[in-house]
Structure formats: structure tokens, C-alpha cells
Amino acid sequence: QPFLLMIVSFMCGPVWRLLINETYPTYKVLSVDESTIIPKVYVTDADNDNLTCKYYVDGSTTPSESKVITGTSTKKEVTFGAINVSGWKEGTHTIKFEVSDAEKTVTKEVFINKVSVSIKEKADSISISQVGIDSEAKGKQFTYMYTIGTSSGWLPQKSYTKYSLTPNTTYTVNVQVKDELGTIYKLFTSNKNITTLAQTPKLKLSNPTINTLDLSIIDNNPTSTQYLITVGDKYVNSSGALTNTATWITLSNKKLTVKGLTTGTTYQIRVKAKNSAGVETPYSNRVSGTTLSN
Questions:
Q1: Closest among 18, 21, 26 to 100, alpha carbons compared
Q2: Which of 261, 256, 216, 218 is nearest to 239 (CA)?
Q3: Sign of the dihedral through C-alpha 123, 276, 228, 240
Q4: Which of 68, 131, 220, 221 has its CB surrounded by the most CB atoms within 10 Å?
Q5: What is the pLDDT of residue 4?
Q6: Which residues of the chain fall short of a pLDDT of 50?
Q7: What is the pLDDT of residue 16?
Q8: Which of 38, 39, 20, 24 is nearest to 101 (CA)?
Q9: What is the reported pLDDT for 139?
Q10: In terms of Cα–Cα distance, which of 83, 88, 87, 6 is closest to 96?
Q11: Contacts of 233 (CB under 8 A, 6+ apart)
């Protein structure tokens, strides 16, 4: 009987009675706006020994935290304090779990992928680029789905641009990443709202009278867009009167009659717009308009 037991042990290897059953995370892509991880390890020991559980970050030889667990004949969850990951650099990081009793130690290392995303908006497009996914981590390969108002479907590239968007309009934006096992990670825990820039307007002047000029704005901005109109060193308010105070106004049908001008005088007029996020365009080119003489 002892001889037979020896043969079985030799053929099958040692019977491990101390086990790391699972960990959290097992592998993780950190969302861009995710600031903490709460590491967990699940352990058992058939001998019901007290277990010392530790974890180490990025190859450190000093444990980040250590806990002693009792009553281990059934699976025990060990929850450590939250790790602040907001300062982690982009790329692959590791958490190594270590569990030991009086006789032996077992370890398990997991990979954490810290990502970054660059979003650039223009008046008619939104671009997502520099999606910092380390595809070498654990040999994983990824595909990407970009949402800018609507979904792109799964694509192999780490960058994407959605064109033909409306200026000064807010779009829902997110990026999902899928590994070869079908696990999907969102790069933003909540969808981001990105507003396209306003389009730089153009001016047209018409119908001069002795003290007014009709002004038309030509652009593709929504009618809710605000404009700042300058006439010489003054500004135009919503009623068309000149004022010394910079005043952002909306225009009915993108038209306005500028009033209170001097007879037979040439004015240099220009305009700029801003989107609902407050980002201003450059000024338009100056346009000259001359009121009529008596």
C-alpha cells in the first residue's frame, strides 16, 4: 500500500492542498476615467491552516498589503484596500498575489492594461486616436468599436475619424475594446459628450441706408449658435444697436440689421462664433460696408 501511494504521487505530482482559486481582476483594461482597483483573491486550504495573503504591484519586493485569513477549509474571499491607479503610466502593469501557510507559498500574477485615448473635435469631424492598448499583454489581440453618435462596428485599427458631422453639435462618444476571447472593455466608464466646434462664419452686407446695413451670416452652424459681431471698435447687440460691451447674440435666420450708423461712412465689420461648450472660432475676414449719403 505505501509503495502504491508513492507510485501514484510520483506519476501525478504532489497534491496541492493550498490553492488560489481565482483572483480579481484576472486581466483588466482600465477605463481612461477609472481611478481605483479593489484587488481580491479567493483561497482554500484543505488543512484549514491560517493563510497569509499578500499582493505586490509591478514587480515590487515589498507587499502593498498583507492579511491573515482563518477558517480556510472552504473558499475564502480576501478583499484588499483600493489601489489608486490614476497616476499609473500607460502600458502593462502587474499585480502578483501571494498566499502562504507554514509550509508552502503559491503565487498568481495578473496583468492590468492602463490605456489612454486622444479625442480631437473639429467643426465637421471627431477623431479618436492614440488608443493606448498594449496588445503584447498576455499575448492578447484586440479589435475596436468606436461610437461617435453611431457605432463604427468592430475594426482592427487604433484610430478612427467620423466625418460629415454638424458643427456645434454634441455627440455621444466611447470606445470598446474586444480581445480574442470575446471579452469587451469600455475605455470610458460612462459615455462622453463631445461637441463639435462651431464653423467660422462668413459675412455678407447688403441694403445700405443712410444709417443701417443689413448683415447676413453664411455658415452651417445651428440656429442656436451664438455670434460676436464687431463694427469698428464697437459690438452689435441683439436689437442691432452698437454697444461698447462685447455681446454674444443669436440671430433669427442668421440675419440682422445694424442700426445707428453714421451717414456716408464706411465700416469694417467682422464676426466670430462659439459652440455650446464655449470654444470660439477665429474672426471672419473683415467686410467693408458704406452707408448712403443724404
A1: 18
A2: 256
A3: positive
A4: 221
A5: 34
A6: 1-15, 136
A7: 53
A8: 20
A9: 55
A10: 83
A11: none
